[in-house]
Each structure stands twice: as C-alpha cells, then as structure tokens.
Amino acid sequence: MTGGIEAGGTKFICMVGSDPQHVEAEIRIRTETPEKTLEKVTQFFKPFAESGKISSLGVGSFGPLDVNPESPTYGFITSTPKPGWRDVDLMGDLKHRLGLRVTMDTDVNAAGFGEFHWGAGKGYDPLLYLTIGTGIGGGYIKDRRPLHGLLTPEMGHIHVRHDLKEDPFEGVCPFHGDCFEGLASGTALSRRFGENAENLPDDHPFWELETSYIASALASYILVLSPKRIILGGGVMHRRFLLPGIMKHVQQELNGYLDHLSLLDGIQDYIVTPGLGNRSGILGAIALAQQISK
Ligand code: ZN
Fold first, then answer.
1. Which of 139, 167, 203, 212 is disulfide-compatible with 108, CB 3.0–4.6 A?
2. CB atoms within 10 A of CB 81
3. pLDDT at position 197
4. Taken in order 241, 266, 264, 180, is the CA torsion positive or negative?
5. For residue 190, how far is its CA from the centre of ligand 1 (angstroms)?
6. Domains of the chain (ranges plus CATH)?
7. Ligand 1 mean position to 159 CA, how many Å?
8. Is residue 108 a contact partner of residue 154, using CB atoms and an 8 Å limit?
9. Parallel/antiparallel/unpaired status of strands 229-233 and 271-272
C-alpha cells in the first residue's frame, strides 16, 4: 500500500490504499493554514507510517509547483495567490513530519496518471487529461510518466478563437484576460451569469459558445501533442450534453486535415469522460507513490 494526497485549495483528500478496489482508509480535511492542515494530514498518516504499512506518499497538488529535482525549491508550492500558501515547502514538510519517501506532481498530472493506471486512459499513451472546472488545466502522460519541462504545462492559459463581436466578454484571467481559462472556466461562467451559472439551462445559447472554446483548445492540443485519447473532467463537464457539440466542433476545427479514424467516425471513443469519476486525482496520487515505493 501507499499513501496519497489530493491537495486542493478548499480540501485535502488523504488516502491509504493500493488501487480503486483496495482502499484502506480515506479522509477529507478542509484546507486552512499550512500548519493546521498539515498537522491533520500528519495525524491521519502517522499510524500507517509508523507501523510500516506505507513507506511512500504521492501528492497531487494545486500550484504552481516546483517539480524540478535540481531546484533548491523542489517540492514547493510557489507563486499561488492562495493566502498563506505561497512558497510553502509541501514536500519537505511532509517528509519531515512522516519520515516517508514523498513525490509530488500537479493535481492535473496526478489525475491524468490515475486515469492512465485504472480509468478511461488505460492503454492510451500518450494521454491527455483536461479538467474544466473553477480553473482549467491539463495533465499529459507520455511514456508512462507525467510530462514536465522547464516548469509544468499550463494548458488552461493558451488562447482560443475568440470573436469579440459574437462574444464581447473580456475574460477573467488576471494575466491574460481572454485565454481559454479566462473565457470558459467555471469562474468565467460565474462572472458571465452570476449565481445563475450553476442552473443555466441546457438549451441556453451560451453552451454553443462554450463548446466552441473547448473544441478550439482541444484542436490545438491534438495538433501539438497528438494524444491517443482525451479525457475531459471537472465541474463544467458534468454537463454531459456538451460532449457531442465539442466533438462536432473539434472535427470542424481540424477540417479533415488529420486523417485518423479516432478523429472521424471514432471520435466518440477518442474524447471521453473520466473512468474514475471524481477520484482520478487521489488515485493518481496513490499511483505516483507506487513509482517510488520499494
Ligand atoms: Zn490565462
């Protein structure tokens, strides 16, 4: 067994287990200050660590994160706007408190990794996992590992086709305005429609626009990364009726240029929803820990 943490801005999910069918313990902790939160996390894992039931811990965390092992701030949450959490040595603190081997990745890479091991991404390498929720982010699994580079990919912040005449909304991203996240995230929806966003009817004309933004981004990812499958998760994607429109728009964007069955008649099997429901992230953290366990 290994330990896993899905570290989010509102809650930390902690788990001990070995796969989706074998979960020994699980707990949800409200995200408070780093000190308070990590103390509760420690209380949960300590008995498993001390008894030798687990020797490694995987963390999928909100970010931005430093995942470069050569860096002096490796394992830190870096420039997050979340109060109190900037420049927090999350990995070092957990190692120190629990005496475990600890590995860390972005929440979206962890979720992609979970889907790759046990969910809708099994057997698909490379795999793209995209979450469209409060924010938008992508995890990319290639050669059985999450992709890192100079930093970690920030797929929510690419620009998508935005016709200002059709949609004069200026976007909500504090850095880029109308990037993909700025236009199409749950936060953007709330800004557009207020508290009604949650209850926006399925036949509201806005959804046509939303599907076109998602499809525009997906077409770019397909052209650049050539994933063998794309998994769409996150709160906005609970609106399952969006999927056929997204598929149609992706095909329109690519316009037949990429001649592969997966992008033509097989597209329903190419763009899919998560196989692990809302457990992709925490199970991905378990899978990450397995990479470093003996
Ligand atoms: Zn942005």
1. 139
2. 8
3. 84
4. positive
5. 16
6. 2-107+278-293 (3.30.420.40), 120-273 (3.30.420.40)
7. 8
8. no
9. parallel
Largest CA distance in the chain: 63
The pLDDT of 46-51, averaged and rounded, is: 98
The pLDDT, as a whole number, for residue 294 is: 67
3 state SS of 230: strand
Question: Amino acid identity of 249?
Answer: H
Q: Taking 80 as the threshold, does the pLDDT of residue 2 lie above it?
A: yes
Going from the Cα of 180 to the center of ligand 1, the distance in angstroms, rounded, reads: 7
Gap from CA of 260 to ligand 1 centroid (Å): 31
Report the separation in Å between the CA atom of 183 and the middle of ligand 1, taken as the mean of its atom positions: 9
Quote the CA–CA distance of 110 and 116 in Å, as a whole number: 10
Nearest Cα residue to 227 out of 132, 92, 120:
120
Per-residue model confidence (pLDDT) at position 81: 84
Calculate the alpha carbon distances from 255 to 208, 217, 248 in Å.
Answer: 18, 15, 10
Ligand 1 center to 126 CA (angstroms):
25
- Angle at 130 (CA atoms; ends 127, 135), nearest 5 degrees: 155
Among 280, 284, 161, 153, CA closest to 218: 161
Distance (angstroms) between ligand 1 centre and the Cα of 110 equals: 21
Q: How far apart are CA 265 and CA 260, in angstroms?
A: 9
- The Cβ of residue 117 has, within 10 Å, a number of other Cβ atoms equal to 21
DSSP state of 29: E
- Per residue in 83-131, pLDDT (tens digit) is 999 999 999 999 999 999 999 999 999 999 999 999 999 999 999 999 9
The closest of 163, 236, 154, 164 to 193, measured between CA atoms, is 236
**Residue that has been written with the tokens 């996240």 in this structure:** 181
